[in-house]
């Protein structure tokens, strides 16, 4: 109970700080030191735990996802087509390909591919999945800050499936509330939303400005 009261007090202080800063026309942009302090004051441990436990809590597959039609380009440049969900095992994603010869389901991991393409019949285009050591990355949000997800059709109202962020044409950075806070740091409205742990709203606000 005491811990919750302390966290609530910290939140109120931080929120009032930014409210005052917004009303002050001469206020300076948020400094990196202030951003780091904000991050430490948030309940960041819970957010990190949620992200780290994503694989474990989901079991083998995300309950909301459906099977996708994939074109798979393997390391040797050969191609195959399959319809599969994206599964998880030991923090690695994979898809299942049913062999026409044997009828067996063959596991294909990102390390075995150059990339994969998901056929989006509604948009009449292919959505590319970039191969990494542990997963394929699909660009699900395009803007000032690009969002890459484990799923090609990831929900845009949740951070649960976000894997990486990319500001402009910069490098891909593994997602965390701290990284998002740093990227939106000079946008006070987005920072306020981060303080409230409304991370998708903060991202939408930043990309819309």
Write structural notes for this entry.
The structure is a single chain. The chain folds into two domains: 2-55 and 176-208, no CATH class; 61-167, no CATH class. Helices cover 34% and strands 29% of the residues. The protein has helices spanning 2-23, 32-41, 44-52, 54-58, 177-183, 188-195, 199-208, and strands spanning 68-74, 79-84, 87-89, 92-98, 105-108, 113-120, 125-131, 136-141, 145-149, 162-167, 173-174. The longest helix has 22 residues, at 2-23. The chain starts with a helix and ends with a helix.
Question: Quick gist of this model?
Answer:
This protein is an alpha+beta fold. Helix content is 34%, strand content 29%. The longest helix has 22 residues, at 2-23.
Please give the number of β-strands.
11
Rg, rounded, reads 20 Å
Average the pLDDT over all residues and give the rounded result.
Answer: 76
What fraction of the residues are assigned to beta strands by DSSP? 25-35%
Strand order of the largest sheet: 2-1-6-7-8-9-10-11
Span between N and C termini?
A: 39 Å
Keywords: Signal
Signal peptide: 1-21
